């Protein structure tokens, strides 16, 4: 112990402290969404493995995406439900650190994977003659491996920087789970290097994949505009629009949260940050199987 600085044994997650009267209703809603995420994503992962028609690069990447979604929500949602149903919101320091690492791991991996998926769609639509040769199994495995390894490295860097910070005697985190911004707000030490590393990470894990996705879909749209059939253009735009909507929600909320890590200076900012975090922890994983696959005729045929 150094003055009023100490290594806490546990944290108190205060994300639900002002909605205790609604905790049972909220736990029911979150449970239903979580079950849908587990069943929907797990079903698509299973189909992509056992159904020969779905063993293509696109469904390979989608299988990785759904696996990441299941892992990400499992990192946070069960803990939320325990706190809601029990009324107790404490989490040990070790479990908090583990939750922080795995959450950053899966979210970071998904950022890079979404860029890989956009590149795959670009090759399929804009360069179809060479698609099979270029997007072979080895190259797809390489892109997926880079996504997972990038997420693991990003999480290791930020977790190690966070646990080196000294914390004050107060251990209340006004959040649903352990994340970088609320932990930085709780620290008594200098967080300037942590903030700098978040900005650096946002370039490689946020802005760069976003730019890749934007360029890929820009080329795809340009190619779609050349389709002579109005029905074909409408169908293609509908699919691209749905994909881009999910990507925009995911990256938009992430950039808001991690490019502005000190936004917890006011109660309004903290509450708004909590609402934003719900989108990339619960809403996006729920929408992904609906938008990407369950509306897809190939998946519907495989289900039948």
Automatic annotation (TrEMBL):
Gene3D superfamilies: Rhodopsin 7-helix transmembrane proteins
GO MF annotation list: G protein-coupled receptor activity; olfactory receptor activity
Domain of life: Eukaryota
Domain G-protein coupled receptors family 1 profile per the UniProt entry, residue ranges: 40-292
Family annotation (InterPro entries): GPCR_Rhodpsn, GPCR_Rhodpsn_7TM, Olfact_rcpt
Keywords on record: Cell membrane, G-protein coupled receptor, Membrane, Olfaction, Receptor, Sensory transduction, Transducer, Transmembrane, Transmembrane helix
UniProt keyword annotation of ATP-binding present: no
Transmembrane segments: 24-47, 59-80, 100-119, 139-157, 204-225, 237-258, 278-294
Membrane disposition: Multi-pass membrane protein
Subcellular location per the Swiss-Prot or TrEMBL entry: Cell membrane
GO cellular component terms attached to this protein's record: plasma membrane
Pfam families: 7tm_4
Residue ranges of coiled coil: none
Protein family: Belongs to the G-protein coupled receptor 1 family.
Protein's name in the database: Olfactory receptor
């Amino acid at each position: 112990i150094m003055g009023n600085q100490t290594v806490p044994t546990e944290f108190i997650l205060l994300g639900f402290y002002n909605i205790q009267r609604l905790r049972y209703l909220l736990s029911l809603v979150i449970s239903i969404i979580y079950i849908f995420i587990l069943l929907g994503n797990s079903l698509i992962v299973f189909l992509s493995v056992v159904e020969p028609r779905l063993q293509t690069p696109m469904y390979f990447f989608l299988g990785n995406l759904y696996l990441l979604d299941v892992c990400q929500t499992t990192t946070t949602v069960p803990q939320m439900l325990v706190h809601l149903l029990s009324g107790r919101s404490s989490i040990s320091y070790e479990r908090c650190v583990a939750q922080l690492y795995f959450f950053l791991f899966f979210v970071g991996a998904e950022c890079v994977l979404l860029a890989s998926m956009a590149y795959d769609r670009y090759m399929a639509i804009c360069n179809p003659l060479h698609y099979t040769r270029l997007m072979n199994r080895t190259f797809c495995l390489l892109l997926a491996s880079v996504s997972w390894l990038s997420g693991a490295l990003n999480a290791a860097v930020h977790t190690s920087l966070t646990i080196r910070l000294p914390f004050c005697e107060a251990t209340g985190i006004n959040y649903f789970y352990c994340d970088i911004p609320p932990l930085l707000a709780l620290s008594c030490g200098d967080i300037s290097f942590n903030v700098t590393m978040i900005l650096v990470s946002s370039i490689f894990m946020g802005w760069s994949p976003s730019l890749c996705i934007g360029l890929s879909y820009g080329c795809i749209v340009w190619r779609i505009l050349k389709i002579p059939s109005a029905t074909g253009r409408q169908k293609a735009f509908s699919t691209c629009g749905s994909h881009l909507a999910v990507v925009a929600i995911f990256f938009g909320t992430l950039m808001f949260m991690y490019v502005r890590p000190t936004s917890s200076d006011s109660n309004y900012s903290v509450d708004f940050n909590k609402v934003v975090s719900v989108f990339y922890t619960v809403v996006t994983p729920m929408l992904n199987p609906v938008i990407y696959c369950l509306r897809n005729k190939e998946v519907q045929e495989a289900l039948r």
